[in-house]
Input
Amino acid sequence: MGYTTKDLEAKKVTTLRLQEMKRTGRKIACLTAYDALIAEIFDECGIDVILVGDSLGNIVQGHDTTIPVTLEDTIYHTKAVVKGASRALVVADMPFMSYQVTADEAFRNAGRILKETGCAAVKLEGGKNVTEAVSRMTDAGIPVMGHLGLMPQSIHKFGSYRARGTDPDEAEKIFNDALLLEKAGCFAIVLEKIPAELAKNITDAVHIPTIGIGAGPYCDGQILVYTDMLGLTVDFSPRFVRRYANLLNIIKDAVANYCNDVKNSCFPNLEESY
Ligand code: KIV
Output
């Protein structure tokens, strides 16, 4: 089913609305954002969910992995995104080591994120190992988005960003983890870089929306890192990224023209002066 004005008319996207979208076959469009300006633009375009991904470690902070991102970084960027977004559901990604130590600590950190940023939900990576933390949060009214398949915070365990669930054992584990996350109370699950068929089986088996990234067309929604889909991060080009613009070239041309104008005393002219 296509994008309808009903999707845009809705005042505020809620976790319940996302579940209703799954039930009624309306796809969920999600993007990452890390600041108020970009969040406001995406919000005006009708994006349903804005994820303040821990990909901010790569995109904003210039790290090789998401591991160095701190709880304070997440809170800082999520506050900014919440200021820019008035319709979209804002989800904050819990950073590495903010939810793995104990369920108590995870619960407290998720509470801090919600209270201090004004976002509506948190996301965390993992299956069976995080269900206790997820239950604590959801019992207390903190909506949680799960994340299965490729989990970038475990890069040092797996040694690569290869697709997951390509062998039957791994596929079965991901499938069972999805059922456990739903049981623990997650309102949605991100499925990253898994075979389309496995994503379809999970999507059919759970009642909550699945949000795919490199997980094929059968998920209930899709998410991309915004700098990838707008063509800013061109040295990262996995098959699942579709480029909707080539902003890198546009920015490079504009900045080169500006440099040229300044150096040749062509900017500013008298009309641009007081
Ligand atoms: O950190 C992130 O941007 C994410 C998305 C890729 C799902 O987790």
Observations:
- The longest helix spans residues 168-184.
- The chain has two domains: 5-243, 248-274.
- The beta strands are 28-32, 49-52, 89-93, 121-123, 144-149, 188-192, 210-213, 221-224.
- Residues 5-243 form a domain with the TIM Barrel fold (CATH 3.20.20.60).
